[in-house]
């Protein structure tokens, strides 16, 4: 049985693989394992749930392979939940992770240290045509005024999870997975999928 992860992002693929790779009799593929790009879903949903579903459903329809897609947003309290569902394009279309981090630093420039709380939230959707499952994971933390660390991706150098003194970019991947929004969402999805895959063996 194959599951296709709807991503080209190697960081995400590693994170997804390390948690879902333990499922019985499942081979995990990513979009890079396909001979051509199946479709380019337009992520124009108003919520993370809608976008995760759009991605999973369109890619499943194009490939016929049971698909998992995720959508993540960083919800900053002092910015009324922004960038949220717009996290990938916070600084504009086609921007880099560094551009988005710079914009976030600028937006929070005058915000006090004790008012910089944020929630990283991931929604994961699995669909195989018969069954559609949604799982969510989140982690609370603080947005730092300056980036720290060279690991991870995206907003990792600015995000310090609650209860730690390091950013996600200062952790090794296993440590990040154990407490991250995506790690938690994947663990929840793993639980939902395990009996299903056992049934179909
Ligand atoms: P996506 O829609 O799931 O790709 O996530 C939207 C944006 O959130 C990405 O472009 C990244 O900038 C950011 N992002 C997603 N996951 C993470 C993460 O684990 N750490 C830091 N930033 C992330």
Looking at the overall shape, the CATH architecture is Alpha-Beta Complex
- CATH topology call: Maf protein
The proportion of residues forming helix, as a percent range, comes to 25-40%
* Class of secondary structure makeup: alpha/beta
* Distance linking N and C termini: 8 Å
Which spans of ≥5 residues are poorly predicted at pLDDT below 50? Answer: none
**Shape type:** globular
Number of domains: 1
C-alpha Rg (nearest Å): 17 Å
CATH domain class: Alpha Beta
Query: How many β strands by DSSP?
Result: 7
**How many DSSP H or I helices?**
5
Note the main sheet.
Answer: 7 strands, mixed
Task: Give the topology string: H per helix, E per strand.
Answer: EHEHEEHEEEHH
Query: Quaternary status of these chains?
Result: single chain
Mean pLDDT: 92
Strand residue percentage: 15-25%
**Bound molecule kinds, no repeats:** inosinic acid
Structure description:
This protein has a single domain (2-199), classed as Maf protein, CATH 3.90.950.10. The N and C termini lie close together (8 Å). Helices cover 32% and strands 23% of the residues. Strands 1, 2, 3, 4, 5, 6 and 7 form a seven-stranded mixed beta sheet that branches. The protein has five helices and seven strands. With 201 residues, it is α/β, with parallel strands linked by helices. The model has no long low-confidence stretch (mean pLDDT 92). Inosinic acid binds at residues 70-72, 87-88, 97, 100, 152-156, 168, 180, 182.
């Amino acid at each position: 049985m194959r599951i296709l992860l709807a991503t080209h992002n190697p960081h995400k693929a590693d994170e997804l693989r390390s948690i879902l790779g333990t499922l019985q009799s499942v081979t995990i593929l990513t979009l890079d394992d396909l001979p051509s790009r199946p479709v380019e879903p337009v992520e124009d949903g108003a919520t993370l749930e809608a976008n995760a579903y759009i991605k999973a459903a369109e890619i499943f329809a194009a490939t016929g392979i049971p698909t998992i897609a995720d959508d993540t947003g960083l919800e900053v309290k002092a910015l009324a939940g922004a960038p949220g569902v717009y996290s990938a394009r916070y600084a504009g279309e086609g921007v880099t992770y560094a551009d988005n981090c710079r914009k976030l630093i600028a937006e929070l420039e005058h915000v006090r240290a004790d008012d910089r709380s944020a929630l990283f939230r991931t929604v994961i959707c699995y669909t195989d045509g018969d069954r559609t499952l949604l799982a969510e994971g989140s982690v609370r933390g603080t947005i730092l005024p300056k980036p720290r660390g060279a690991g991870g991706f995206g907003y990792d150098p600015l995000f310090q999870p609650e209860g730690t003194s390091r950013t996600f970019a200062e952790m090794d991947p296993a440590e990040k997975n154990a407490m991250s929004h995506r790690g938690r969402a994947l663990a929840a999805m793993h639980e939902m999928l395990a009996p299903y895959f056992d049934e179909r063996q």
